[in-house]
Amino acid sequence: MMLPIVSCFRVGGCLFAASFWLLLFLAIPSAATAEAPGDGFLTGYIASVLERDLNWNRDSYGLRVVGGVATITLFREDPVRREAAQQALRVIDGLQDVAFALAPAENDGSGAGTGITEQRIKGKAFPSGDLFRPLLADPKQPQFFASIDRFKSLGVQYTMAEAGFGETFGMYRWFGHREGDGLQLSVEASLVALFNMSTPSYSLINADYSIGIPLTFRSGNHSIRFRLYHQSSHLGDEYLLSANPPNRINLSFEAIELLYSFEWRGWRGYAGGEYLINKDPADLKPGMAHWGIEYRGTRPLLWKGRLVGGVDWKSYEEHAWATDTSVKVGLEFGRPNPGQRRLRLMAEWYRGYDPRGQFYMNRVEYYGLNISLGF
User: Fold this and answer.
1) Where in the chain is the domain with CATH 3.30.70.2210?
2) What residues have CB less than 8 Å from 95, skipping those under 6 apart?
3) Which is deepest, 21, 190, 217, 265, by most CB within 10 Å?
4) Any idea what the Cα angle at residue 114 is, between residues 111 and 115, rounded to 5°?
5) Is residue 303 left, alpha or beta, with left meaning phi > 0 and alpha meaning psi from -120 to 50?
């Protein structure tokens, strides 16, 4: 039963990388010609028409675009503004419909409404999603996922299974002047466990635990993530009791991370780094550079799935700035809008130093299949 799966894993890392770039190349014409404008593009377009052409003050309305349908929230009833907006927006390609809503008024005791409440103007507790979109190809991105890979390191090869449980939970979001902009404080946590599927009992090899506090910011196509987080790693008991137990390393650290991201027509580039501020072993070198590129399609290709993919690179001072490469490409199902739940089926390939805890000094390579759930 396992023979066809194992044979499939032996395709090779180069084939995954070549397939990724081929798929992204094929996606370029569809993104430029065949795809309908995304909700983010429509949001910016509509806002520019209202503010530049109709001279609306950006604090005088709210705007949300979901599935090509725009909802414009007015803080007071104004039929003239409604009609002018409808006339100006009806010519926008890809805009399916325009709906208007009136923000609920707060009574000041005199019987007159005072407009939208301060709560609605300034922010929201426990928002869904995050202002900095999760990284597609980063092996350490907190999320719910499972993968099966062909793994090799130090001349040894075996089938590896990986399971991850993680989430970023928004605590409070301060709204910006435009829909989707703002500043958000969140809490995140994750657990990632590795299993050797080539042993009779599928031995637990390693488990990484992390918890962090990210502060994210977005303005249009620009977003930033500043994060303080802790990670600790622990070897599995069966692995420690094996015939050749490893030398245990008590890997634990706190790190500060800063990442900047720019999005354009389905593409996204990001760059930044991390710095260890407290670490064990104490002689770990503190610096790390981090950058990558992603593509998120909006046109359904197969079973209503959209093409997604990314390449993530990291370079650690501890490893003399050698480059670690992670590639993931596949299909995404569910709503494409930020903050909506979705499922991704992707092929993955990794080459570099082991991204998982105890084995950070080992060079590894693996390739296989990944399924992930989340935002």
Assistant:
1) 39-115
2) 42, 46, 68, 70, 89
3) 190
4) 130
5) left
CATH class of 39-115: alpha beta
**Burial of 333: CB neighbours in 10 Å, binned 0-12, 13-18, 19+:** middle
Q: What is the pTM of this model?
A: 0.69
| CA–CA dist 230, 256 (Å, integer) | 9
d(CA 367, CA 5) in angstroms, rounded, equals: 12
Apex CA 343: angle with CA 356 and CA 198, to 5°? Answer: 40
CA distance 299 to 36: 8
Numbered ranges of CATH 2.40.230.10 in the chain: 144-374
Are the beta carbons of 112 and 317 closer than 8 angstroms?
A: no
Instruction: Give the tens place of pLDDT for each residue, 91-150.
Output: 787 787 888 888 765 444 444 444 444 444 588 888 888 999 999 999 999 999 999 999
Phi, psi (degrees; rounded to nearest 5) at 39: -65, -35
Residues in the chain: 375
Architecture of domain 144-374: Beta Barrel (2.40)
d(CA 48, CA 346): 37
In angstroms, the CA 139 to CA 23 distance is: 21
Beta strands in the chain (DSSP E): 61-66, 69-74, 97-102, 123-125, 144-153, 156-175, 182-196, 203-219, 222-235, 252-264, 267-280, 287-302, 305-316, 323-334, 342-353, 363-374
